[in-house]
Amino acid sequence: GQQVMQIPQYQHVQEGEDFTTYCNSSTTLSNIQWYKQRPGGHPVFLIQLVKSGEVKKQKRLTFQFGEAKKNSSLHITATQTTDVGTYFCAGLGGATNKLIFGTGTLLAVQP
Amino acid sequence: DAGVIQSPRHEVTEMGQEVTLRCKPISGHNSLFWYRQTMMRGLELLIYFNNNVPIDDSGMPEDRFSAKMPNASFSTLKIQPSEPRDSAVYFCASRQTGTSTGELFFGEGSRLTVL
């Protein structure tokens, strides 16, 4: 079945450093979404990418969808303590309409 | 808008007992999803419904798990009998298909502990 992997599993950075998480799907995706889950919270939607090679920015966050639509990345510039949480990509692909979540990357930011 | 509402927020039960988790999706949303989250397995899709009809239940672990959606505003996930390995956070999420983003709106989750 469809699998979505993320690396790294965990990243610890100093406040102000940059952070990147990578998402790879075993199958071609029709679109990809990114979610953030704060500790003890629930996943919250950040953005959706649809087009091959698409790049979108939200303030310090940059999202990219690969040309082959099988991978994606999220880059945070100059992390802040409010960025702490687990970042999930979620891919929509295949004949079904189900969203498969990646394994997630837990970001810890030290002030 | 109240968002997706789940109950109970926490449940502690003993092995063998029946557990029922409840979800009220956002009004107007026509797709509903049940996910399970554990440290070991991450966020797993258990089942999803479109217009109250189960579309894909391939993620349901075994026959002990069942889900229903009797109407557009209510869904249940039942585990009978429960086992310690069912301990997890169960999330319900809903969305309106056909929108530009198709984002999922998650509830706060039901944290289940089976002793």
Topology (SSEs and partners):
The complex is a heterodimer of chains A (111) and B (115).
Chain A: E1 4-7, E2 10-14, E3 19-25, E4 29-37, E5 44-49, E6 55-58, E7 61-65, E8 71-76, E9 85-93, E10 99-101, E11 105-110
Parallel strand pairs in A: 2-11
Antiparallel strand pairs in A: 1-3, 3-8, 4-5, 4-9, 6-7, 7-8, 9-10, 9-11
Chain B: E1 5-7, E2 10-13, E3 19-24, E4 31-38, E5 42-50, E6 53-56, E7 65-71, E8 74-79, E9 88-95, E10 105-106, E11 110-114
Parallel strand pairs in B: 2-11
Antiparallel strand pairs in B: 1-3, 3-8, 4-5, 4-9, 5-6, 7-8, 9-10, 9-11
Q: Look at the structure and give the mean pLDDT of chain B.
A: 93
What is Rg of chain B?
13 Å
DSSP strand (E) fraction of chain B?
A: over 45%
Number of helices of chain A: 0
Classification by helices and strands of chain B: mainly beta
Q: Return the string of H and E elements of chain B.
A: EEEEEEEEEEE
| Major sheet description of chain A | 6 strands, mixed
Which labels suit this protein?
heterodimer; A: mainly beta; six-stranded mixed sheet; B: mainly beta; seven-stranded mixed sheet
Describe the overall structure.
The complex is a heterodimer of chains A (111) and B (115). In chain A, a hairpin with a 5-residue loop joins strand 9 and strand 10. By secondary structure, chain A is mainly β. In chain A, strands 2, 4, 5, 9, 10 and 11 form a 6-stranded mixed β-sheet that branches. Helices cover 0% and strands 58% of the residues of chain A. The radius of gyration of chain A is 13 Å and the shape is globular. Chain A has strands at residues 4-7, 10-14, 19-25, 29-37, 44-49, 55-58, 61-65, 71-76, 85-93, 99-101, 105-110. With 115 residues, chain B is mainly beta. Helix content of chain B is 0%, strand content 54%. Chain B has no helices and 11 strands. Chain B has strands spanning 5-7, 10-13, 19-24, 31-38, 42-50, 53-56, 65-71, 74-79, 88-95, 105-106, 110-114. In chain B, the strands form 2 sheets. In chain B, strands 2, 4, 5, 6, 9, 10 and 11 form a 7-stranded mixed β-sheet that branches. Chain B has a 4-stranded antiparallel β-sheet with strand order 1-3-8-7, with no helix packed on it. Chain B starts with a strand and ends with a strand. The mean pLDDT of chain B is 93. The chains are: A mainly beta (111), B mainly beta (115). The A-B interface holds A 1, 31, 33, 35, 41-45, 48, 88, 90, 92, 96-104 and B 31, 33, 35, 42-45, 48, 50, 55-56, 58, 91, 93, 97, 101-109.
